[in-house]
Amino acid sequence: MPETAKRSAREHYESLVSRANQAPEDFWAEQARRIVWFRDPATILAWDAQEHARWFIDGEMNICHAALDHHVANGRGDQVALYWDSPVTDSKCQYTYRELRDEVARLAGALRDKGVEKGDRVIIYMPMVAEAAMAMLACARLGAVHSVVFGGFSPKELAIRIDDATPKVILAASFGIEVDRVIPYKPWLDEAIELATHTPEACLILQREQQRATLGPRDHDWQECLAHAQATEAVSMLGSEPLYILYTSGTTGTPKGVVRDHAGYAVALHYSMEILYGTRPGDTFMAASDIGWVVGHSYIVYGPLLMGASTVMYEGKPVRTPDAGAFWRLIEEYRINCFFTAPTAFRAIKKEDPDASLMAGRDLSSLRSLFLAGERLDPPTYHWLNDLLPVPIVDHWWQTETGWPVAGNLLGLDMITRQASGPRAPVEARAGSATWPLPGFNVQVLDGLGDEVEPGVQGNVVIQQPLPPGCLTGLYHNPARFHAAYLAAYPGYYLTGDGGYLDEDGYLFVMGRIDDVINVAGHRLSTGEMEQVLGSHEAVAECAVIGIEDSLKGEMPLGLVIIKDAWRGDESALRQALAQRVRDEIGAIASLKDVLIVERLPKTRSGKILRKMIRQIAAGEQYQIPSTIDDPASLEDVREALSEAGVGLAGQARSA
Ligand code: COA
Ligand code: AMP
């Protein structure tokens, strides 16, 4: 890229950053004018240094109205809003903005008939069907707070969420399909309700034609409810009123219920669709994720629709449905302009089709950009993609809590600042980096004492308060946990839980979690929760779960257990039973790679297990033996067990 072009991209970027940092109210008031309000906000930002930012608190709008009705009223009624593509059931369909608005309005009416009102919680436990997106939008339309629970979670995990969110109604489907395995959503829902203390008043069950579920006394057939329902208008919501709760893994066994509002979220998503993804109304956008994750909320459902784009919802996998050419087929068939998925999906494709031979003959000319997130885009995958596709490959970093990207290469920068006709990368990417923080996110890297570190030095990645619109407004009915988890460590800053560094040119490198959260195939899991499950087995005296590197999934959980002296039994059967227990209690996605039996675990004299050191041994890294270690010989036990299992042989010790 010529020097002058580089300089001007940097200048544009810096002017936006300085406006967003120095005059956040003006900056976000301007962005707020891009979406439709029932009543414009007079208060843009309500914040003082002691508390968390709240945006647009007295504005009135409804995100469903902004995402659907507004576009129908402005000439987009006949444009496709949502394509649904399901290789696992061999079916497809599409809805225009008008059709989607009408379906959603009737579903909202059906929910109202079941007593759902503004402020009520509704759990959505569904596979990747178009009705799941409609369910989210219908809740939003009524002002009900939706909480989508990912289908890969077990009935027990669903029960935990039912008890926390206390939903009035639950929406589910009869079944889903994972490649070739049927996921029994309805039986699992029944099991979860049995396990939970709270009972919903009603369940609406989408009977999929391939396999119907038996309905009980509190269940209602989705289609029958729709047939009798009246279309319902969108309820006016104060800007700060909640849109959804999305549970995510924290460091303990209890998930965190991240709460997000209507207005701030809508403003932020619209801004990100433009400045980062470089999309415009009429474009086609696909995020290959699941509505159970934040990516699905923000960029399968709300973001593309707020922008007036067409979104593609996919009930399938990058491989095996039917092969590693699925993404290329989707891009060609729907003329996708911007595609988003997790790096692990492309590692899976690369493993099965290293030369991308299945791309041959596909017309990918519509594609303008490829975005990756959910985990760090590892340099080998970045280079593979960069060599393969003639479009910008953008690693961008964010998390459930922020709701939209914190850092990325701003493909829409020129479109906004210089009215350029299409997206392009304003700066050269650096492999392994998510490029620059987005305007509105004042990202810094601090050491343990709260001092900013030098460029290139790793530390804790934090964001200076106030966070921009769209980020979490709190944890559902748990302000104390919200404060302790995110705000207490560094007053005035939000703690992301990630470690990394900024280089001398301001590029952000996010290297991994600093807590007990791991990232398996782009799915965020808590090792603490897995330890709780292992520790509850009668044979287990103590245990630790760590994430170890995996060439496909990025990380895989590995358990180390000490068994009780009195326990007698077959050790290999025990290892299998423990792995199965984690799968049963948390869900299939928490697939433990293995459970190793050890004599001792390294601990401090106060009894704290030195998990970081175990991780370092497993990764073959240098580690520091703390002077507080209780029994240094325990390290040898761990090293031996790991090496017998073929994990990390080269750990090097240094004494503190
Ligand atoms: N419902 C039920 N079970 C599910 C599920 C769902 N929605 N999603 C995953 N699972 C199951 C899988 O079937 C698998 O079961 P198995 O152990 O019996 O085979 C298990 O959970 C582990 O799933 P996963 O870690 O996803 O591994 P996989 O081998 O099935 O697929 C990938 C690997 C890379 C193809 C897949 O993880 C993927 O497409 N990831 C990228 C996209 C993504 O979802 N990112 C999330 C955030 S952007
Ligand atoms: P989730 O809340 O499930 O979206 O997971 C968020 C976590 O995934 C972050 O805190 C990071 O640890 C990790 N993550 C997501 N995207 C990236 C990225 N582009 N680079 C590095 N880590 C990422």
UniProtKB/TrEMBL annotation:
Domain Acetyl-coenzyme A synthetase N-terminal residues, every copy: 13-67
The organism's place on the tree of life at top rank: Bacteria
Residues of the AMP-binding enzyme C-terminal domain: 529-608
Pfam families for this protein: ACAS_N, AMP-binding, AMP-binding_C
Domain AMP-dependent synthetase/ligase per the UniProt entry, residue ranges: 71-466
Gene3D superfamilies reported in the protein's UniProt record: 3.30.300.30, N-terminal domain of ligase-like
SUPFAM superfamilies, per database record: Acetyl-CoA synthetase-like
InterPro entries in the cross-refs: ACAS_N, AMP-bd_C, AMP-bd_C_sf, AMP-binding_CS, AMP-dep_synth/lig_dom, ANL_N_sf
Official protein name in the record: AMP-binding protein
Native species: Cobetia marina (Deleya marina)
